[in-house]
């Protein structure tokens, strides 16, 4: 069984490699995001152990790109509680399992063996809220089975709202996650895009799932049943 470890902490990666080789695995290690993406794409691995914080390309981006390319190699994410992402994000994006650092080698080994037993299986990780469905890998959105065409920005906005469905998210949160941390333009751009989104996902269906929470932000209603 061939494993790939993508981990920039060289000593940790080497320790894992030694331990896994002792358990009879064939183990390659790479230390950067770009090398990890390349190796995971080109190598025939049975499991990839993927760290999140990597130089060059993050583990999340690698995971996204692999799944978008319909590469279903079982992936075990190594997450750190840095507040930016959590385990739910890893699973939503198509990881098969996750371990939070620090972890014990015995637990890692058990998780790898479990993934090997399960093998590759398509895990499209489609997000659903009511009759809204969003497929991050295929970049498709539908409501009650009807395809909806969104621009990339509208898509990101809806994805963010769906990942936090039922919660009130502030304009600042949305700007930070959907635009980028360094965006310095007018915060009203969020309002404009929420308007675009409503015209595509709500109005044509007689719905009002994207709600304005006065003075606080927006909330995607999880109980917005068809009238
Ligand atoms: Ca790291």
Written account of the structure:
This protein is an alpha/beta fold and 227 residues long. The protein is 39% helix and 21% strand. The strands form three sheets. A five-stranded parallel β-sheet has the order 2-1-3-4-5. Helix 3 links the parallel strand 3 and strand 4. Helix 2 runs parallel beside helix 3 and helix 6 crosses helix 8. The protein is elongated and about 60 Å long. The N and C termini lie far apart (53 Å). The relative contact order is 0.10. The mean pLDDT is 88. Calcium ion binds next to loops.
Question: What's this entry about, in short?
Answer:
The protein contains eight helices and twelve strands.
Which strand order do you get reading across the main beta sheet?
2-1-3-4-5
- Overall pLDDT metric: 88
Bound heterogens, unique = calcium ion
Largest sheet: 5 strands, parallel
Structural class: alpha/beta
Number of helices: 8
Element-level helix/strand string: EHEHEHEHEHEEEEHEHHEE
Amount of beta strand: 15-25%
> Rg, please?
20 Å
Number of distinct beta strands: 12
Share in helix: 25-40%
Per-chain topology:
Blueprint: E1 2-6, H1 10-22, E2 26-30, H2 33-42, E3 47-51, H3 59-68, E4 75-79, H4 87-92, E5 97-100, H5 105-118, E6 127-129, E7 132-135, E8 140-143, E9 146-148, H6 152-163, E10 168-169, H7 171-178, H8 188-202, E11 210-213, E12 217-220
Parallel strand pairs: 1-2, 1-3, 3-4, 4-5
Antiparallel strand pairs: 6-7, 7-8, 8-9, 10-12, 11-12
Helix pairs in contact: 2-3, 6-8
Residues 8-9, 51, 53-54 line the site of calcium ion.
């Amino acid at each position: 069984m061939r494993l790939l470890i993508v981990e920039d902490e060289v000593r940790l990666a080497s320790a894992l490699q030694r331990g896994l080789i002792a358990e009879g695995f064939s183990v390659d290690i790479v230390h950067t995001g770009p090398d990890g993406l390349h190796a995971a794409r080109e190598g025939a691995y049975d499991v990839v152990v993927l760290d999140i914080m990597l130089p060059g390309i993050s583990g999340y981006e690698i995971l996204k790109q692999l799944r978008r390319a319909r590469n279903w190699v079982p992936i075990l994410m190594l997450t750190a509680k840095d507040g930016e992402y959590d385990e739910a994000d890893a699973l939503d994006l198509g990881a098969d399992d996750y371990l939070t650092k620090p972890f014990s080698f015995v637990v890692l080994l058990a998780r790898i063996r479990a993934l090997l037993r399960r093998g590759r299986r398509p895990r499209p990780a489609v997000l659903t809220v009511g009759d809204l469905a969003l497929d991050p890998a295929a970049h498709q959105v539908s409501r009650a089975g009807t395809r909806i065409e969104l621009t990339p920005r509208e898509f990101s906005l809806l994805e963010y709202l769906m990942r936090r469905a039922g919660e009130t998210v502030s304009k600042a949160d949305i700007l930070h996650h959907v635009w980028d941390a360094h965006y310095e333009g007018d915060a009203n751009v969020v309002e404009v895009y929420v308007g675009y989104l409503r015209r595509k996902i709500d109005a044509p269906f007689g719905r009002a799932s994207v709600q304005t929470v006065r003075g606080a932000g927006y909330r995607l209603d999880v109980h917005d049943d068809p009238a």
